[in-house]
Amino acid sequence: MKAILLAETHQPVQYVDTDEPTIGPGEVLIKLQAAALNHRDVFVQKGLYPGIKLPVIPGSDGAGMVIETGEGVDSSWKGQSVIINPALNWGPNPKFYGADFQILGMPTNGTFAEYLRIPTDSIHHKPNHLSVEQAAALPLAGLTAWRALMTRAGLYRSSDSSAISEKVLITGIGGGAALFTLQFAVAAGAEVWVTSGSDDKIEKATEMGAAGGVNYRQADWHKALLAQTGTGNTTGGNRGYFDVIIDSAGGPGFARLIDVAAPGGRIAFFGSTTGNITDIIPSKVFFKQLSIFGSTMGTLGEFTAMLSFVSDHQLVPVIDRVVPLSDTEQAMQKMDAGSQFGKIVLSI
Ligand SMILES: NC(=O)c1ccc[n+]([C@@H]2O[C@H](COP(=O)([O-])OP(=O)(O)OC[C@H]3O[C@@H](n4cnc5c(N)ncnc54)[C@H](OP(=O)(O)O)[C@@H]3O)[C@@H](O)[C@H]2O)c1
């Protein structure tokens, strides 16, 4: 089969011919039709990920058709269009994954290939309203966004009896996971604001339902953001606006999130694109009674809840571009440059 191989870190991925996988009991063989990139794939290639084991076929996101079922698997899966949950073996504790937890695409071979072997409990019926490319864009980033926003930060939904519309800030809106967070929060009835390094991306986010946003490249962007919300341009005392903040940038900018959080606010983060968090003033966190949550991927229950929400609200993932599998290295470079808006999808 054709596949993408990452043989060594700091090297381009290669488009190669390799053996088709053979399935075992409890597994299915999927003919992949589309896959999607995540920043994780780039971090692994650059040697910036813990526990790297190579060579590997990268890729956590994919959608396709079941073409073979292993021993003990319901044969009616054969011929079904499926999407793949890349959070393998989460385990029984919803608060934290177990020792066997893995993310598809390293160390196990992933979705940048024509065929994939995968345990049956990792496949789910493709939402009917999505094309195979749109479905492939959803799993990892959608799951991460869902757990961070709904489970960890505990966003109130307009369907809740409280009918509170919370104010949400999402940083770096051009990111894949950030865009799903925007779609989920808007669909849940929240008032959503964004940051981005690109005014054009802020404009696009506004077209998707965001109330507004600021460019994080400007000095004192946090003051400009508060001014836009009408909260005033001071960050002194207990001022702040956002009930929920979802971040994946980390770095020095994280301290500004403390400034713009409303008293009692919740901040959930799942990435550190810009490095270590610095300069947080502890008293700002405790006087404001803030809660800060780390989040990673999600449980099987969260994956199915996310899929139901996507179907109920007919949400469609934002796709920056679809490129052939043979162009994966260029796609990785594009993701590394960060100029995309939405997911980069590989057609297979
Ligand atoms: N823990 C997990 O389970 C998990 C899951 C998914 C992702 N992640 C992490 O989350 C991060 C995003 O992943 P992704 O796949 O969504 O990546 P991505 O699509 O490549 O997005 C990265 C985004 O980071 C934003 N960014 C860059 N500098 C920033 C800054 N100074 N302040 C705010 N935002 C900034 C950019 O937003 P603009 O383009 O708008 O400027 C860029 O689009 C990565 O660090 C990734 O490893 C973690």
Name a few traits of the molecule.
binds NADP nicotinamide-adenine-dinucleotide phosphate, 2 domains, 26% helix, 348 residues, seven-stranded mixed sheet, 17 strands, six-stranded parallel sheet, 25% strand, alpha/beta
Summarize the structure.
This protein is of the alpha/beta class.
> Mean pLDDT, rounded to whole units?
95
User: How much of the polypeptide forms β-strand, as a percent range?
Assistant: 25-35%
Beta strand count: 17
Name the CATH superfamily classification of the largest domain.
Answer: Medium-chain alcohol dehydrogenases, catalytic domain
What is the radius of gyration? 20 Å
Number of helices: 10
Distinct small molecules? NADP nicotinamide-adenine-dinucleotide phosphate
Order of helices and strands: EEEHEEEEEEHHEHEHEHEHEHEHEHE
How would you describe this structure to a colleague?
The protein has 2 domains: 168 residues, Medium-chain alcohol dehydrogenases, catalytic domain (Quinone Oxidoreductase, Chain A, domain 1, Alpha-Beta Complex), CATH 3.90.180.10; 150 residues, Medium-chain alcohol dehydrogenases, catalytic domain (Quinone Oxidoreductase, Chain A, domain 1, Alpha-Beta Complex), CATH 3.90.180. The termini are close together. The protein contains 10 helices and 17 strands. It is of the alpha/beta class. Helix 7 links the parallel strand 13 and strand 14. Helix 3 crosses helix 4 and helix 6 runs parallel beside helix 7. 47% of the residues are buried. The strands form 4 sheets. Strands 3, 4, 5, 8, 9, 16 and 17 form a 7-stranded mixed β-sheet that branches. The site of NADP nicotinamide-adenine-dinucleotide phosphate has 33 residues, from helix 1, helix 3, helix 4 and strand 11.
